[in-house]
Specification:
alpha+beta, signal, Lipoprotein, single chain, 4 helices, 27% strand
């Protein structure tokens, strides 16, 4: 029962996270160097972004790539329905919720086991949802100012989010972003 409530809560947040209320400072696009070999491909979500969509980019610069047929506050890239973009109040892209087949260079995606995620990211910070809440536990992976957040039910990654570490931490702690 807890998993069903948690999934419903996270899905509402994920689908409704198109814009945040307050915006921590977002640094300009800084290069991120990874010790892990970079896997290339159209379905790979890097710490810089996915395909030609980069974290830190302004909404206006991505306008030609956004799916205008979709209504509501969820913003997606045309041809990539597995990714929901989250823009800060200053219109900078700060996070992206992503579902399989989108995955990290290490192969982690929604549906991966927690064991696979921990093996791919042994230094991930373990995040525990508050007792009695209907929220998922998480694994937070950060490298520089960017990272991944994997929300899980103890067995399987239910939601995957990439972006600025400050926003990922804020998402886990407060669930910000519902519009």
């Amino acid at each position: 029962m807890r998993g069903a409530f948690a999934l419903a809560t996270v899905m509402m947040l994920g689908g409704a996270c198109a814009q945040t209320a307050q915006s921590p400072a977002v640094p300009e696009q800084a290069p991120v160097v990874s010790a892990t070999p970079v896997v290339q491909g159209p379905d790979i979500v890097h710490l810089q972004g996915v395909r030609d969509v980069r974290f830190g980019a302004k909404r206006a610069d991505l306008e030609h790539r956004l799916d205008k047929a979709r209504t509501g506050c969820s913003t997606q890239v045309t041809g990539m329905p597995q990714g929901n973009l989250v823009f800060a109040a200053d219109d900078r892209l700060v996070m992206m919720w992503f579902d399989a087949p989108l995955r990290t260079p290490e192969g982690v995606h929604t549906g991966s086991t927690v064991q696979e995620a921990r093996a791919a990211y042994p230094k991930a910070q373990v995040l525990t949802a508050p007792a009695g809440s209907h929220r998922f536990d998480g694994l937070l992976v950060t490298e520089g100012d960017r990272g991944y957040l994997f929300l899980h039910d103890g067995t399987t990654v239910q939601k995957a989010v990439a972006g600025y570490g400050e926003y990922l931490t804020r998402l886990f702690n407060t669930g910000f972003g519902a519009c």
